[in-house]
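Why do we care about 3D structure at all? Because function follows from shape, and shape follows, mostly, from sequence. That is the central idea of this module. The next example makes it concrete: a single protein chain, its amino acid sequence, and then its structure expressed as tokens.
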Amino acid sequence: MTVVEYDGRIVVVDCGVRFPTAEMHGIDLVLPDFTYLLERRDAIEAIVITHGHEDHIGGLPWVLRELAGSVPVVYSRQLTVAMAKSKLAEHKLQVPVKQVEPGTVIQAGPFEIEFIHVTHSIPDAAAVALKTPLGTALFTGDYRFDQTPVDGRPVDIARLSRLGEEGLLVLCGDSTNADRSGLPVSESEIGPKLLDVFARCEGRIIVTSFASNIHRVQQSINAAEALGRRVALLGRSMVKNVGIGRELGHVKVPKGILVEARELNRIPDKQLVIITTGSQGEPLAALRRMAYREHRQVKLHSGDTIVFSANPIPGNERAINDTVDRLFQIGCNVVTNADAPIHASGHGYK
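And the structure:
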């Protein structure tokens, strides 16, 4: 969460959460410190969200509840708006959330707000330019220069170049992979790799990825369809995000391919792909519960192949390793990005 203040007025860029480390016993989420915003609640012109990942959108319900009575408008792009509305509805909060697409400029007090299309591991990601009389601050959000994205919409390099030519007061850039040289793999290259991995599996396939990585889910569905397998979606966030993605046209699901969780036992192992949450070893996620024999619908057994189509977020390694250890004890085959190129980072390299 970043607070930008000019002439006594405020725009907030992103409002995310962190997830607890293994040492944070009894902690579910780590929230930003909202104290300054609560003290200046009447000065907040807007909250802008760059994309729909939890570390950028997850704190919205908590800060907006605290700001009750002086709630600012929340702005973002289509998919992020849909995710924000769903999240706020779960918390029974009625807050104005407005869709803004690139090319539109919003006036919010002394700020001019503009969204610029970028590519990331979730559709409708954006950089945000805040123009003030002092100059322009550009917040890239999370991004990479993917020239062959799954949805066919590469980064708006032309607009970013023009902003650079006009001059920036400050650039706040994504530095996640700033220590890595080269270019990240395009998301569109992952689909064929997943198909290769799936084709070598004789039994049931359980693939886990971030629930918000809608393009990865789509490519997993495509691979399953190519091999004549049915698909089940497990995990609350996976089901919710795919539902939103289908409504907005980001996810295309072939007719008759989906199977409900309660019907899994009726499908032969060799005809089934399960797409689930839990790639980060989250304690309550579906894969973690499967690994610990606590899932009601899925009982893992020898011959199952677990495909981790995600890399560990720093700090989650211990939880993931615990999950993988359990999977090996059961007799499952485990495939990670170290075994096959089945993950592409959403963050650019230097």
